[in-house]
Amino acid sequence: MRRMRILVLGAGALGGYFGARLLEAGAELAFLVRPGRQAQLRRDGLSVRCPALGDWRQPVTALLAGEVRPGWDVVLLSCKAYDLDTAIEAVRPAVGPETAVLPVLNGLSHIDTLRAAFGEAAVLGGLARIRATLTPDGEVRNLSDWRALAFGELDGRMTPRVEALAALARRGGILAEAVPDIRAAMWAKLVHLGTVAAATVLMRGSTGQIARAPGGVDFMHRLLERNIAIAAAHGVAMPPSFAAEYRAMLADPAAGYTASMLRDLEQGGRIEADHILGHLLAAAERAGVERDLHALACLHARTYEERRAEEKARRKAAAGRAA
């Protein structure tokens, strides 16, 4: 049987982790990376640490954009949403008539962009549930036992390509599922992520720290309820069990849960303000849902981005004067 050929865009926390697991399952796989990461991978191989599956290290194939050719069965996009346009141009040479493009980006707005670039039939819907990080020395570390992937055809069909990919991923230890209604699953993740991102970015603390502060649980529950209402107005009703699960999680004073957006912000990096918080703010306006909390969270994140850009320009000017 021919091995599935998979090109993974990026070998960071998400792409590196799932790429390693798919390699372990027997895929013919390469990572599409930037020159610095290529040199690192060629020198050291890819190293992954995972509490559930143990440590893994081996040489991998790392390609630059100019080295990509057609012939891939799946292109896995693991970039941040703000890098989507660059990612599309990088993988375009790899996408042929039979290639499935599987994005596991946060939010929903990227789907229309990808379908415009590659055609409706090429693009799958997908999401990942993982808490991983890339260390400065290039090691991928999974910070929990989360390692889930869900994906499916956007028209709801269960096709051989999604079933084959799910079976392959499960052989590698990924908690993978091909689902018939991937849009609903993506909305559920956006409701969850949008709540935690807005809360932890605004309050600069974990959900447990917010919960221990007077009024914190009520604040997070109001965010959750409004996000559930936004999804319902867009045709996706969250089941009662979903609301109960996340209400309990947000009320846990011992939880150390933070959104990746907060972690990126605290490290001075770029954040997906428009793609998550801005998307939900616009969706709230369309749905007629009270928007004050979403507007405040979005303003907070966009102000950070303005400050970051200003400081970057100042550093660049100072370096120019010193030269």
From TrEMBL:
It catalyses: (R)-pantoate + NADP(+) = 2-dehydropantoate + NADPH + H(+). It is an enzyme of class 1 (oxidoreductase). Gene3D superfamilies: N-(1-d-carboxylethyl)-l-norvaline Dehydrogenase, domain 2, NAD(P)-binding Rossmann-like Domain. Residues 6-155 form the Ketopantoate reductase N-terminal domain. It comes from the Bacteria. It holds the Pfam family ApbA_C. The keyword Oxidoreductase applies. Signal peptide: none annotated. Residues 181-294 form the Ketopantoate reductase C-terminal domain. Keywords: NADP, Oxidoreductase, Pantothenate biosynthesis. Pathway: Cofactor biosynthesis; (R)-pantothenate biosynthesis; (R)-pantoate from 3-methyl-2-oxobutanoate: step 2/2. Catalyzes the NADPH-dependent reduction of ketopantoate into pantoic acid. This is 2-dehydropantoate 2-reductase. It comes from Teichococcus rhizosphaerae.
